[in-house]
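Notes to self after the call with IL:
- keep both proteins in one doc
- input above output, always
- annotate only the second one for now

Protein 1:
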Amino acid sequence: MDEQGESIPAPGGADSWTTADPEAGAGAAVTLLRALIREACVNDGDPASGQEIRNVRVLQRFLSGVPDGALEMQVFESAPGRASLIARVRGTDPEAPALGLLGHLDVVPVDPDGWSRDPFSGEIIDGEVWGRGAVDMLYLTAVFACVLREAALAPERPRGDLVLLAVADEEAGGEYGLHWLLREHPGALRVTEVLSESGGMRFGDHVAIGVAEKGSAGRRLIVRGVPGHASIPYGAQSAAVRLGEVMQRLALFEPAIQLGELWSRFVSARVSDPRLAERLRDPVRLDAALGELGGIAGYAHAISRVTLSPTVLRAGKTHNVIPGKGRIDLDIRTLPGTTDEEVDELLRQMLGELADRVEIRHLRGWAATSSPTDTPLYAAVERAVTAVSGAPVVPNMAAGGSDARLFRELGIPAYGFGLLGPSWSYERYREHIHGHDERIDTGSVGLALEALRRIVRDRIG
């Protein structure tokens, strides 16, 4: 029993949380969420971590009561324990949309000392489910599975396919998850439109729905000097000193501000002071106004320009040797339309006269992606979210990345879905994702569930 007195099914035991009653769906989603949290599928980037097979088994048990033929389930394992589940309810019309519900099964590591409760307990405290992954994004994965199960148990099949894509390795880039699936088993992933994470938080009175993500253009800057014994520094040229010169330039460099349609809509939704809104729409005055945005200033800064963040700095191996080589790794996040050539030119501008003495190497990256807002799926999301929440919708760009970009790259529209309660500002949302004491209220789980039901009825019902 947990603190609310609810009996939690033991792994492999009776599947007491399953139900065909839509009114009981929110409770089913919450209990499924707690079960997913408890499996602790922590992905630290090591190929052997994650072990998402445990959460695949949770979902298989949850879906096991569906009659034969109503649901097709496939498990794909890219490496030992790195498993993904694809579950499909077949529609009656092959020409109808195939709606994909893209959720990931892995979570990021935790620092237990920073948590006030067990990060993998799945406890319900004061109406909130605690645990790593509660917000990012196991609550949505649970909601997706519940709506899929309801569709499979319905007396009539939907017009179009409904597909749960519960994948591994999203938190480390997806090489053992969606990347691998699209490369090795593309037929199993046949969808025409996708809903995933990065939506549902509040921008003022509006609910944000993700339509775009910044790209990633990682770079390594390599500097060389002349090594020597540290006791006789004369004549040596320390690569560490040269790294310091580059770091100083990085700290002072400001890429150009680039404002698009999403920026103006963000300002309209979030800023009620017309004078502040006017300054934020002016590239010349924008940075001076950022400080007045409070906790959302970091997000506003990120989506209004390319950002350059030094993350790894290395030079030297021992204290008595002047290093002859050093490196800086940069996490560079790009806006839609930014090319690799433009990123390299930006770095040369930053380096100035040092450019000829610094080697620029490309690390892993991907282009920024976006989906249009004039699609039938976006319209269905807008109708459903507004009907359930009573709030208008605003499209937004995520500063980070998600698996949704892989479908956008294929020309398939993909949106960051969600519907959190009115108190879930963007600041609260960002505080919980990858942060200490991650948790989500059960009311938000219910809101997302009801909105998704409406979308499914609208698109393929």
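Protein 2 (the one to annotate):
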Amino acid sequence: MRKVLVTVLVLIAVGAAAVFWWTRPERDKPIDPRMACHVGLYRLDDGRLVDIAPMSEPGLRWRAMDGRTGKLVQDEAGTWSGTVGWSDHADTTPVSLGTCEKPAMTFEGHRGTKLQFEAVETRFEGNGETLAGRLVMPPGDGPVPIAVMVHGSEGYSARTFNAFQRIFPANGIGVFVYDKRGTGDSTGRYSQDFHLLADDAAAALKEARRLAGKRAGRVGYSGGSQAGWIEPLAAQRSDPDFVAVSFGLADSPLAEDRDQVQLDLIRAGFKGDALVKAREVTDATGEVMASGFKDGYDRLEALKAKYGKEPWWNAMQGEFTGDIVKHSPTMLRLVGPFHDEGTTWRHDPMPPLRAVKVPLLWIIAGADKEAPPEETRRRLLSVAKTNPNVEVVEFPGTDHGIIEFETGADGERTALRYADGYYAMLVDWIRDGALKPAAYGNSERLAPR
């Protein structure tokens, strides 16, 4: 009996290391104290703004408001150097921050001054958990719009890493940022249960209004990726004045995996019958995931026997399908539940979307590999036909995050920068309540026409 128990424990340990990486978002990591002193939003002597943000790995990330970005590191001699975007390409953009003892921020030859904003820390009650939040306000005493930042799937402290808590206040917008449950200084277990997270977001909106008092103008939600599922739900449970979503899906989480697999096969040169058969497979793996690893195995094993030796089989990756098909039902039943993040896999986003009556801006990444945009675009345009408050904008050729990239000979993408016009679009729409007639980079306004 003891031998059997040891075997099972070994299987769990091995399986936990090898399976289900897709449900394990990056968790909180401490910031290098030698870097923390430089974090802030700087106004250059020519009026431009540059944000310096912490990273979970060694170094810092700078962001210019035109979308350019890079990683910064400092050597033992105190010299700063960097790489372009998220690549390993050497960056020729001259950036220097000095030291904590002698800060001296310069960017492209221009001196930078760190801006100071009024920030109030708070703790408030979400759905059964106590959440840590922060209200950051621009200078002045008059009412301003406030964006409540709703999380994506990240598993780290938004109060530490969300750069919009500096970017928006520098542009006249208040920000309420909070650590989602199970991250940072908030209590509870990390979760991807959209209903729990929507309750938390609704509580955050209420807390933002309370803290802002007379300075609260229009108060609404803003966020990316998974926030596209959470914000419309939260809007039904609260009274926001606006909803802004970037690179989210207007389809179910299961569809995210399905569409990713289709893209995997198309990039690998498969089409037609292979795509139809792969759809059968993703329907089966989706049932396994959505059931909490309890059901769907008979169908999946039958498809393995039927298609497992076909040339397209090993090209499937997706959000989870590529990993699920590699393992036996026994392993999946054993290890899967230990990695369950409570994801609302069968969530139908359309009823909450149709119920949003306040102004809604949805920004699509036109070449999004993580959240393929085709069905989302179609669905959003159908909603916009009957709701004049819905605006749909797309940045062609951008990946998840509204990020421009280069594609290598092996087909792999290297992220280089945010799209020009992305930050300006969010700022104008949230601050002014409308987009300007002028162009925002190469973006395309899909609705209203």
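Annotation: Residues 211 and 278 are 51 Å apart (CA to CA). The mean pLDDT is 92.
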